[in-house]
Each structure stands twice: as C-alpha cells, then as structure tokens.
Specification:
By secondary structure, this protein is an alpha+beta fold. It has 3 helices and 9 strands. It is elongated, with a radius of gyration of 27 Å.
C-alpha cells in the first residue's frame, strides 16, 4: 500500500512539474488583417519559370473555374468594402470604360476624344490578392497564417500608368 501511495505521489509531482515548467506560450497576433498581391504570371525570362508563377496548366483551370463560379453565383463575391456583389454586378465590373483625349500623330495634331472599352477575361488575371491573419509563437519562432479571403487582380493601363485592380473578394 505504501508503494502505491508513493508511486501516485511521484506521478503527481512529475505531472505538476512537467506541465508547469513547460507552460506553452500562446501565439501572438501580429496582424488581424494584412493584404498583399502574389504574382501568378511570370513574364520575366531572366527568372526561373516557377518564380512569381503558377504553371499554366494549373493556373488557367483554377482562374476559369473561379470566374465561372462567381459569375453564376455559386460562390459569393464581395467588393473591396465587404459588401456582397450579385453575379450581375460582378459581370458589370469585368468591363471598364475609359474616356481619353488623344492627339493625332499627323499635322495639324488635333486633339480628339475616344472611348476605350476594356473587357476582363480570366486570362487577364495576373495576381491573386490575399487577406490574411498572421500569428507567431515567440518561443518556437514559428508563424501561422490564416487566409481570410482572396481575390483576382488585373493590371490596367490608363494614360500610360499601370494600376492593379481587385475584381472582387472571396471571403472564407
């Protein structure tokens, strides 16, 4: 009986020591919301093919399916401010009209107004924007990322300047 009590006491002490001395520090939140663009099309011949690139046979079916699902309403899309978008609103956002004043290249170099209609297709998507939460464990020096949402990004050129335009968010 004494051996059993001694063994139980020894196990209790071991249990207390092991769990109090190895107290795990909770992860600390670094960012509740952080967003950034990830290029998925590599147009630089100087880089290896896999840098800033999703291989075409994987990228195109992914983007095509994503766009189809959003346009049909199978997946809920949101605007930049997290307002829900209807499939009709998404389709409307895939067409952009820009009015520009240009100058003729021949004398008398008159100015003229023109309307440029740009239509976005899945092949025009060059980046994926991620919205994430980041946490890290200071004891282990590890990081954990939780994806809160993602969205396709196209590059548009207006008056010689390139802009990244988020088409919509898919919130998870």
């Amino acid at each position: 009986m004494r051996k059993l009590i001694f063994l139980l006491l020894l196990l209790s002490v071991f249990y207390l020591v092991s769990f109090t001395s190895c107290k795990r520090q909770e992860e600390e939140i670094l960012a509740t919301k952080i967003q950034y663009d990830v290029p998925i099309v590599n147009n630089d011949p100087q880089l290896d093919w896999w840098i800033n690139n999703l291989e075409g046979s994987r990228r195109e079916p992914f983007l095509q399916r994503l766009m189809e699902a959003v346009e049909k309403g199978d997946v809920k899309a949101f605007d930049y401010f997290n307002n829900p978008l209807t499939p009709q609103q998404v389709k409307a956002s895939l067409s952009d009209t820009v009015y520009q004043t240009l100058m003729r290249t021949q004398p008398p170099y008159e100015e003229y107004d023109t309307m440029i209609i740009m239509t976005v297709e899945y092949r025009n998507i060059s980046k994926i924007r991620f919205l994430e939460e980041w946490a890290w464990d200071p004891d282990k020096l590890t990081m954990e990322k939780k994806v809160l949402g993602f969205g396709p990004v196209v590059q548009s050129q207006v008056a010689g300047q390139t802009f990244n335009r988020l088409l919509f968010w898919i919130l998870l």
